[in-house]
Design brief:
Strand order of the largest sheet: 14-13-12-8-7-6-3-22
CATH architecture: 4-Layer Sandwich
CATH class: Alpha Beta
CATH superfamily: Penicillin V Acylase, Chain A
Distance between the termini: 41 Å
Length: about 350
């Protein structure tokens, strides 16, 4: 149930941000990988690729294999965000025994591209070069995903696996949620052309009838009547698009980052608001730390929210256990180091509340 946005400041600097929702309480980990670092190309075998650019990546060790990343940023500002795409992902599947050294697994493709590409145009070129070498493995590559790429120029695409191909789709809005496919969401925006941030007249006639009594709205927000407020992918895409469009252009980097978090806060899921009912046997046999309600139902949670400054290559994040915003900057790393570094985003030692004195 993740949601991704893209905004710009008054200097046309690009910021992208996303939420990460899960049914499982799995701590995310920020991983730094230097230049010329070798990583796996696939979920089977030991074939590797070497990075051209240093990267900051997010994974969820314990929930997904720690070499598979769902979010990332490289040293030159190319960014990716992987989101769930259920019911629509159609991978080019091969048998594990047929995987070769030229193939890149669909689970690794975003990590691979952010490690070897400088721009979104480079991503397009590399996807076209790889062609049918982008594969999934039967009975292993089962999680349906699509991925968005942004760069500091404002260029933005979404890669969606359909009909056995990783299709490149232009994304002028820079918004992404979940299923259906991107073109549906963009077309669906036409349903909401009536939405406006402008308040209705404070003293007006109903339906233009000047013989009727004048009516005064009870409060603000009348221009937004009809804005969907639920947590379905289509509704979140509409809200994210609207808020990103009407946002007053931030004058500087700090304001842009805070505004991005403000937009993303509106997609936080109250624990217990979205639930699934599983058989008790499944709950008893589950090895992952699920978010369980008092009624023994599984609820989803907005586990992590992050914002990336693509111009200054800074990675901001907060999590459901600590709402204080933290930041990781490429300047703290030796980009030509020989080893990776990692940090768990859930840190109980970080102050959650800042005490002030009057």
């Amino acid at each position: 149930m993740c949601t991704n946005i893209t905004i710009k400041d008054s200097n046309s600097n690009v910021y992208t941000g996303r939420t990460n929702e899960q049914w499982v309480e799995a701590a995310s980990e920020i991983v730094f990988m230097p230049r010329k670092f070798k990583s796996l190309r696939g979920v089977v075998g030991d074939h590797t690729f070497e990075s051209k650019y240093a990267t900051l990546l997010l994974n969820e060790p314990g929930f997904i294999p720690n070499h598979i990343f769902f979010d990332g940023l490289n040293e030159v500002g190319l960014s990716f965000q992987t989101l769930y795409f259920p019911g629509y992902a159609e991978y080019n599947l091969v048998n594990a025994t047929d995987v070769d050294a030229e193939m890149v697994d669909v689970y690794m493709i975003a990590h691979y591209l952010v490690s070897v590409c400088k721009t979104v145009q480079d991503v397009r070129n590399e996807i076209n070069r790889l062609g049918n070498k982008i594969v999934g493995v039967h009975n292993i590559s089962t999680e349906p995903m699509h991925v968005q790429f942004n760069d500091p120029s404002g260029d933005c695409i979404v890669l969606e696996p359909q009909e056995g191909k990783l299709k490149i789709k232009e994304n002028p809005k820079g918004i992404l949620s979940n299923s259906p496919a991107l073109e549906f969401h963009l077309e669906n925006l036409k349903t909401y052309v009536n939405l406006t941030p402008i308040e209705g007249a404070s003293d007006t006639y109903f339906n233009g009838n000047t013989n009727a009594e004048k009516l005064t709205p009870h409060g603000g927000g009348t221009g937004l009547l009809g804005l969907p407020g639920d947590f379905t992918p289509t509704s979140r895409f509409v809200r994210a698009s609207f808020f990103s469009e009407v946002l007053e252009t931030p004058k500087n980097q700090e304001t842009a980052v805070l505004n991005a978090f403000t937009i993303l806060n509106s997609f936080d899921i109250v624990p217990g608001a979205v639930r699934k009912i599983y058989p008790q046997e499944m709950l008893d046999n589950n090895k992952m730390p699920l978010f369980i309600t008092d009624n023994n139902e599984v609820t989803t949670c907005s586990c992590l929210t992050c914002v990336k400054d693509l111009t200054n290559t800074r990675y901001y994040y907060k999590d459901h256990k600590n709402q204080n915003i933290r930041v990781v900057d490429f300047t703290q790393f030796d980009l030509d180091a020989t080893e990776s570094k990692s940090l768990l985003t859930y840190d109980d030692q970080v102050p959650k509340f800042i005490e002030v004195t009057l």
